[in-house]
Design goal:
Elements (H helix, E strand, L loop, with lengths): L14 E8 L7 E7 L5 E3 L18 H4 L4 H26 L5 E5 L5 H8 L3 E5 L3 H11 L17 E7 L8 H11 E12 L4 H6 L13 E2 L2 H10 L2 E8 L1 H16 L4 H18 L5 E8 L2
Parallel strand pairs: 4-5, 4-6, 6-7
Antiparallel strand pairs: 1-2, 2-3, 3-8, 7-10, 9-10
Helix pairs in contact: 2-3, 2-8, 8-9
Bound molecules: zinc ion.
Length: 297
Amino acid sequence: METLSQCPVCQSASLNAFIACKDYTVSKDTFHIVQCASCGFRFTNPRPEEAEAGKYYQSEDYISHSDTRKGLINNLYHYARKFTLKKKLKLVTSVSSKQKGSLLDLGCGTGAFLNTCKESGWQVQGIEPSADAREFAQKTYGLTLNDVNAWEKITGNSLDVVTAWHVLEHVYKLEDEILQVKRALKRDGTFVVALPNCSSADAQFYGQYWAAYDVPRHIWHFTPADVKRFFEKQGFTLQSVLPMPWDAYYICMLSEKYKMGSVNYGRALVHGWASNMNAKKNGNTWSSQIYILKPVK
Ligand SMILES: [Zn+2]
């Protein structure tokens, strides 16, 4: 395990205990999330060493790598994904103002989104640390994905869009990665970042059981204010924030399972709906949000 002594956003050494959460997916161990006393940023601390992190992804339940269809939740996930893949592509087209172009998906998992983009004429590249996921993408979609050492092959100012759908919360050397994204994007390029929002109503309701804490795989736990502060520091401007209303239902189903031992779908639907209603009223409190960022070049 590795312990950070400073906040990675503002470098303050004043860190307070925030919450202890169990890893329900793989290890069943308990991990701690701390909160910076100065800027409020939350992160898993201590966390597994980067070289050890892979073993916390070794589970058939870890859906983005295995593409499992076991159980109702996973089936609902696949159904929702089919729908959301098209919506994501539409979003990319709209925020980049391009019908087609060059796109890199960071942490692309089994490549379903890249395949959707490729089919509509985009030139696509993907970076994915899991060898199993890369193999799946090759077999299923004929996509050759890169491992994490691919950045050196990617020319500066060459990409129209970089996407990171629920990925950056997993990335150890986050500042290095974002620096590479900034370098590779064209001057008018767009960085599309989806992240869970730990200041959402469902996060507050489920507390330690909130499924999107997903320790120790999630090492950073962003609020919208953290996102703005962090990316501005890295040389991006935040252009807009978009909701991901379907995520509230998925996260509430998993959270119910963690809290009660089994899923009460009715309760999960009610809490997912309540979280979305809260976000509709207050803005910026969706369970997951998409941040549209532009590089300052
Ligand atoms: Zn801080």
